[in-house]
Design a protein that fits this description.
Chain lengths: 339, 339, 339, 339
């Protein structure tokens, strides 16, 4: 309350708290009086009080996440991707091209990925692109090629679903449904995948806080799909030397505050091929449950995001190094401390 | 090219440019050699060159927007909302509550809006909310109430469409289809409204650049719907004293670089009721084609965003002041200079 | 406290609060127990508690600004610049070139400014520049030219002081000491001007929050110099179409939360000459106590920041329009509401 | 040039380029004509052209950094700190408390640091603080204590210099002069340390781009002090869960684009003690030449930034792990690729 707030103003605030079934605790201080609200389980909207005479500020202290929060559910979630477990302490590699471009490109990419020992293959059939004039993916034909890859190699498919209309078709092929960064707050889509049981990889929006990411995941969990993996892929900042600012501390925060596994996507995070390996390794050491990288048989001929794809040689070296770091990591006392 | 780039490296770049059907112009400079690309109409993806030996940087100079750009289409677009023209030099007021909450609240709000002389009524039936536990709108029942408002008052309806599934239902009621900030890059939804002919109000995403906003509009225009209004509603920055940073220069840039009308939404922009009027007036003077504000019969009892809604009294005063400023503005030589 | 915090952990927190001479208020809630601290006048550093077992978060609610806050000092500050009052409800124009380049340029600029009726002239003698190879100002020779302008015209001088070493020399000429945005948190310089009695124009750093701006001003006031004017000149965001994002809501927040006058600097805010007038006018309507704009007899030949300077013609029109808006503004009931 | 630019407008641009002694290259394209400037060594200010009739945009392609750029000086800089080399491929640990608080605290901290095998001790005597009411350091008494530590232990001293006035006193004690993030663009201070020969640790400002960091270093190098170490300590973004966003990709970019060593400061980067170790390890793997961390004998009783200091136990474990990772790193083919 404002330092000059009247008794009547304080009483009005208390009344509004109690009318909502909660408890008001009046705390006179050195310069101001505070009113603490207790008894509420999910937080009270600040809008109920801001604007009332004498009210200066309204600070939320309750955690709005019931299902995602590690405080509520200390047990870590294990996500099962057709026999591959994510979140068990190992570091899973997910790799493949940005977009599926042709049968030849898909199969050559899959060979590279399978040869590295990775078990999860990424590749976009439906590509959300900033410009309507950019390549939008092969769509259903791309799904068909992913299905062929799946039958041919011992690989699980991670691919993006762009809307509810194509969800059935994508789910037929996908072992993991990816929600892209631009759709992180597309709540209709979150609700749609929340009703399915296929694991979901939820990418953080480039302009979204971690708390918003947690609440987006809360949408999916609250509808019954508990198999959610979070993904850090870079946030938008004033720095232009990298495509985004790849926020490695997000990995640490996600593991500390939630029980969900977290995957790092350094390819989108920095957007520059030669800078991907050091960032991927940093993510492993910071505690990521997995790393997703783009690899392409010929990055310079890629139809999308070629500048951030690794060559087959760089990819092979990176996987070897990440495996060594993951092995090193597993021998250390703790990666991220418990709350 | 790197200052030590070899002839062979420069030749390889030129070859790739010419293989794509464009022209390479080699420009030796004081410390580096540049290669300029001409003959391309829509820009060449940087990924084709970044990563090639000897290449240091790749700078786009072509405007990627063909349909939205004022350089290409100097004539300003007029949007017709059932007889009300937006973009003709006047400043249109759009007002109403954040969400439709009940028949009584909808009708009392509509009375306030109609009494002010405004012709467009806003109100959400489908509300995208950060938390799954927040009020999500009355949905189809809310649309029904909006339809009742439309029949009762001389008001056009601006309401948000959240997904393709509910587009038909929303379009039956809406005179303007609003695409929310979180859906600005939901390309499936952009494509869906691009195929309709109802005017679209496209809000800038909080983490999106103006160039991305223009390209999102380009999706809609490229599918045939030319009746697009852009909307600035605040961007996400490090400042926390306001909900967002309301970027008034965006209004100036939109009017300079595009031919589409632009609406300001200071309610979401600052998120604090008492700060909305000065920002709304600033937007008028900066050249907005319209201002959208939230008003509620009782802001403190609103089910969403009450802290940013105006009281009926504050709203009435604001409309009067905005009208005076718009009249003043129309007498000045130019608001935003031509390119 | 964490929902599983033990009694002993809560007791340890209370003990630490009471050992510091404050009062601990234990508030058991639905899921967690909160401990409110009262009795402290300036806020307690969160670091005293974060890291203690069982502590989840520590939220500051006390206002750290004692002298700058309008809550503490409701009376608005009037700054007297040799007979010109800033902060009395009028809107003061400050104009001139970015840098003083020559006697001819300085005098031609001063003529333009004086002819418009403005009373304050800006011009840099010591210019902080991002690159060491850019023009750094005429330094002491520039001060001499400013002094000549001051003697020749009825103009007060606003010029930047870059360091304590040159403060004496600058103060001999300056009617207002400008602290540049890059020096907003140069506390040695803030302390130096805090000990003087010449008015100070303190620019908000491009990466600084309003709360940090208020605390920077608090440094100056706490040393006895109460004649402080705050200045919004744009913040750094992800948007690249403008030089900075000119945060007009900052004007509203400064007037609401502090008693100090606020000046808008749209020239640095947007950095594009043709976009300055609409932003300047928006700032007037939003409640600025003054507007500072760059004008140059020949913008295209300026040695610094020419792209954002107004031509003499554009400047003359802008001053006329700003004066009309300021007159209009003074007739309205309130610009920014009291707290 | 604008697509409708006239011949005369293009000619005027060419004339201005040639009048400045450079060469204009006219490049007619599919929709627009571009004019490329060659023959300039340091870039031409865009302000010379923006605002000219028919000009739409002006894009800088020249690298403004002559001395800092690795393109110009491929040989990596080695910084010699009294016998300890930074930048030779090893990873140097710098550790100590945020501020020197007392003889006892300084010596106990130094013991912890020396026991870990680290050779560089950090500790602030002059502390720039956001609020004038926060602890500002012991100042000259703190320097005296640092000098005592230096005599007692085999440790080199890294401490901040806040202004030119105290530079002599600080330089008597410091083996490395630290320029704090808030002073990164305090050009008077940069010039002052540029004239000395003591190594400088230049911290990136929280709101500053990497390019601005490089240009700030360019100030120091251009005055003759070549012993400059750059430091990433987190940037300001919209995310509030961490104190700053610790930009690990900055380490990769600095090593790629400059020849200067780079130190990571994860303590300020994340600002939360338990999150420092994973970020520190990530920085090592990403290629940092050193890591600076805050350690305090009793973090919870620290007079500043205690929430981000490590306990002696956590510090000891971290140093052990960082050393293992640095050893692993030195066996890999390359960390950051050459340009």
């Amino acid at each position: 309350m404002h330092r000059n707030a009247t008794e009547a103003q304080i009483d009005a605030v208390c009344k509004r708290i109690e009318d909502a079934g909660n408890t008001a605790n009046v705390l006179p201080g050195a310069t101001r009086t505070a009113v603490a609200i207790t008894g509420n389980e999910t937080g009270i909207a600040a809008e109920r009080f801001l604007g009332m005479p004498g009210v200066i500020d309204c600070v939320a202290v309750t955690n709005a996440c019931r299902l995602v929060s590690r405080e509520m559910h200390p047990q870590r979630t294990l996500v099962d991707v057709r026999g591959v477990t994510i979140g068990d302490g190992n570091c899973t590699t997910i790799a493949g091209p940005c977009a599926i471009e042709s049968r030849d490109q898909a199969f050559r990419s899959a060979e590279i990925v399978a040869a590295s020992g990775a078990k999860l293959f990424r590749g976009g059939a439906f590509k959300p692109r900033t410009s309507p004039y950019s390549f939008q993916g092969l769509k259903h034909e791309g799904l068909k090629l992913l299905d062929d890859v799946k039958r041919e190699f011992d690989l699980r498919i991670v691919t993006e679903v762009r809307d509810s209309e194509t969800l059935d078709a994508v789910e037929l092929v996908a072992d993991v449904l990816q929600i892209g960064a631009r759709n992180m707050q597309n709540y209709s889509l979150l609700e749609a995948v929340g009703k399915r049981r296929t694991p979901v990889l939820l990418k953080r929006g480039a302009g979204c806080t971690l708390n918003e990411l947690f609440l987006a995941a809360e949408y999916i969990l609250s509808l019954g799909n508990k198999q959610v993996i979070l993904c850090e892929r870079g946030i938008r900042t004033f720095e232009t030397m990298t495509r985004n600012t790849f926020d490695i501390s997000a990995i640490v925060m996600i593991r500390h505050h939630t029980h969900l596994p977290v995957i790092a996507d350094p390819s989108h995070g920095v957007g520059i091929g030669w800078a991907v390996p050091p960032m991927a390794k940093a993510a492993v050491v910071a505690g990521a449950d997995g790393v997703m990288v783009e690899v392409h048989p010929q990055p310079w001929s890629a139809l999308s995001d070629g500048q951030q794809a690794l060559t087959p040689e760089a990819y092979a070296q990176l996987v070897r190094e990440m495996n060594e770091l993951a092995a090193w990591r597993s021998k250390q006392p703790t990666v991220i401390p418990a709350q």
